[in-house]
Amino acid sequence: MQVKHDALKIESNGTRVTYTDITEMIKEKIQEAGIQDGFCVVSSQHTTCSVIFEEFVHDKDWNGDELLQVDLNHILEKIIPRQLTESDYLYPGEKHVQFLEELSQQTPGYPNDLTTILNADAHMKASLFGSNETLIIKDGKPLIGSVGYIYFVDWDQNRKRQRTCNLMMMGN
C-alpha cells in the first residue's frame, strides 16, 4: 500500500464565482503516483472553496461558464445572496475583523482592504457543498464515468487569488 500527496495550484477569477475543471490534472496526478487500485481524496484547504463532482456541460454563457454552473449560481444567489456590505450578514464580527487586521500587518502580501472579507456568502456556500470529494481508482483511472468531471469552486468573489487543492492518493 502506498500513500502519495500532491497539490494543484488554481487561480481564482476574483470577480465572480470561479469553477475550475481539474479532472485532467487529477488523472495526471494519479498516473504520476502509479496508483492502480485505491482512492484519491481531492480537498480544498480554503474555507470559501469547494470540490464538487458534476456533469460536464458543453454549452457556456458569454463569460465562458458552463450553463449548469450558471444555473447553480442563480439558485444559490436566491438562497444565499452575495454579501455587499457589512450589514448584510452578522459575519465578520468585530473580533474577526481585528484578527484579520493584525494578520495583514504581520503577513507580507496579505490584503488590508476590509471589503475583501465581506464574504459570508462564500463561507456558507462552501459549507453547504463541502471541501472534498473521494474518487475510487481502478486500473489507474478514477471511476467518474464518461461525463463526470471534478471542479474546484471558489465561491469568493472579492479578489483574485492563488488557491491550493490538495490530493492524497492511497492504494496499490
Description:
This protein is α+β, with helices and mostly antiparallel strands and 172 residues long. It contains four helices and eight strands. It has helices at 23-33, 67-79, 94-106, 120-129; strands at 2-11, 18-21, 38-44, 49-55, 132-138, 141-142, 148-154, 162-171. Strand 5 and strand 6 (141-142) form a beta hairpin.
Question: Which strand order spans the largest sheet, edge to edge or round the barrel?
Answer: 1-8-3-5-6
> What's the tally of helices?
4
Domain tally: 2
Major beta-sheet overview? 5 strands, antiparallel
Overall form:
globular
> From the alpha-carbon coordinates, what is the Rg to the nearest angstrom?
18 Å
- What is the share of helical residues? 25-40%
According to CATH, the homologous superfamily of the largest domain is YjbQ-like
CATH C-level label of the largest domain: Mainly Beta
Average pLDDT, rounded to a whole number, is 95
| Gap from first CA to last CA | 5 Å
- Beta strands, count: 8
Question: What structural class should be given to the helix and strand makeup?
Answer: alpha+beta
| Low-pLDDT residue intervals, each spanning 5 or more residues | none
CATH architecture of the largest domain: Sandwich
In quaternary terms, these chains amount to: single chain
Secondary-structure element order, N to C? EEHEEHHHEEEE
CATH topology of the largest domain: Jelly Rolls
Q: Which percent band covers the strand fraction?
A: 25-35%
Family: Belongs to the UPF0047 family.
Organism: Tetragenococcus muriaticus 3MR10-3
Protein name: YjbQ family protein
InterPro entries: UPF0047_YjbQ-like (IPR001602), YjbQ-like_sf (IPR035917)
